[in-house]
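Minutes, project check-in

Agenda point 3 was the complex the collaborators sent over. CS summarized: two entities, 226 residues total, and the question is how they sit relative to each other. Sequences were read into the notes so everyone works from the same version.
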Amino acid sequence: AQSVAQPEDQVNVAEGNPLTVKCTYSVSGNPYLFWYVQYPNRGLQFLLKYITGDNLVKGSYGFEAEFNKSQTSFHLKKPSALVSDSALYFCAVRGYQNNLFFGTGTRLTVIP
Amino acid sequence: DVKVTQSSRYLVKRTGEKVFLECVQDMDHENMFWYRQDPGLGLRLIYFSYDVKMKEKGDIPEGYSVSREKKERFSLILESASTNQTSMYLCASSTPAAATYEQYFGPGTRLTVT
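CS then shared the predicted structure for the full assembly.
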């Protein structure tokens, strides 16, 4: 069965420092992986996805994610955090048919 | 840009009431989804639909039903609302034609059942 795990409920980082939000996955077959962001009282916004190809995927707002098959991970990264990056981040994996299975979310707080 | 709209941002209902949550998408997407979001649990799939008049149960369908009479509209129905259905409800759509499987979300409806 497909699933993703986000081991950290909360990540705090100082403004200007690099940030990492962790995600590990479990799938049968090739994984299709996604990151979404949710700002307060809003729906989810798509950030980036990995389908195939280069292990480093670039997305919106300067975010990128690194696909690591041997570690079954898909960590979200940004070289320099902004206060406006503070939000709830969800990792997801494609499941059966066209469904997505979401992680439990990681709240990122960027401290000025 | 894909636009997914939900009929209400905030809704307060009483226990036992029948509740309708409406979702409309404007991109002619075949697939539509209803999730509920609870702290610490992430998003859980309630129902989804791949075409008009088609529906499939997700992971937590109990206490819910859905209706899809038109391609652009997907309704979630709480037949008899209960306090444990207090949650944020998110609708999403996607198209298999893109072969990317990413979903586009509405702004959510925060439902409180008292």
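Noted in discussion: DSSP finds no helices and eleven strands in chain B.
Follow-up: revisit at the next meeting once the mutant set is ready.
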